[in-house]
Amino acid sequence: MDEHADQERTSPATEARIRDSFGRQGLMRHLGARITEVAPGSVHIVLPSRPEVTQQHGYVHAGATSAIADSAGGYAALTLFTEDSEVLTVEYKINLLAPAGDHLEAVGTVIKSGRTLTVCGLEVFGVQGDGRRKLVANGQQTLIRVDAPKPA
Questions:
Q1: What was the pLDDT predicted at 3?
Q2: How confident is the model at residue 53 (pLDDT cuts 50, 70, 90)?
Q3: In whole numbers, what is the pLDDT of the chain averaged over residues?
Q4: CA atoms of 29 and 23, how far apart (whole Å)
Q5: How far is CA 41 from CA 7, 64, 83, 93, 125, in A?
Q6: N or C: which end of the chain has fewer CB within 10 A?
Q7: Helix, strand, coil content of the chain in percent (nearest 5)
Q8: How many CA within 13 A on the CB side of residue 13?
């Protein structure tokens, strides 16, 4: 067995916490987005292209593209924190490079994780039905770690 394989897996408890939190996001549910991969410091979110997420020219709307990128980065950061922590975005910048494909895949990757602030790289790929991928947006995000609310 590869000794690095365990280092690249998120614990089942952390993955469950990420997926549970994502399931509570009304916007992601409304957009039809879903998490496809969770690893330490990395999360992938897929968004199918459909009329409800497009703008007037038929392309996936920049707001939908930005939203899945923001969530992918936030959850990537959260994979590295304990269950008594949450993260909030304090800033992000995204460049829209090209129209999307059949669906979008946002990849959030932690660049630097700190006690208070974490910086993530954001990439969004347009994916065609045959699996071809093209970078359609990229950016960077800063998040702040906050204490999770105590259960009542």
A1: 39
A2: very high
A3: 92
A4: 7
A5: 11, 22, 15, 19, 18
A6: C
A7: 25, 40, 30
A8: 5
Give φ, ψ of 116 to 5 degrees: -110, -50
Helix (H) or strand (E) holding 70: helix 62-78
Q: DSSP assignment of 12-64, as one string?
A: HHHHHHHHHHHHT-HHHHHHT-EEEEEETTEEEEEEE--GGGB-TTSSBPHHH
Q: What are phi and psi of 89, to 5 degrees?
A: -75, 130
Strand order in the sheet with 103-113: 34-39, 42-48, 103-113, 117-127, 133-147, 85-96
Distances (CA, A) of 73 to 43, 55, 70, 107: 7, 24, 5, 7
CB 122 within 8 A of CB 130: no
Q: Which residue has the tokens 């910086």?
A: 119
Q: Which of helix, strand or coil describes residue 132?
A: coil
This prediction's pTM: 0.91
Lookup result for tokens 């059949």: 102
Return the number of other C-beta atoms located less than 10 Å from residue 55's C-beta: 11
| Cβ partners under 8 Å of residue 30, min gap 6 | none
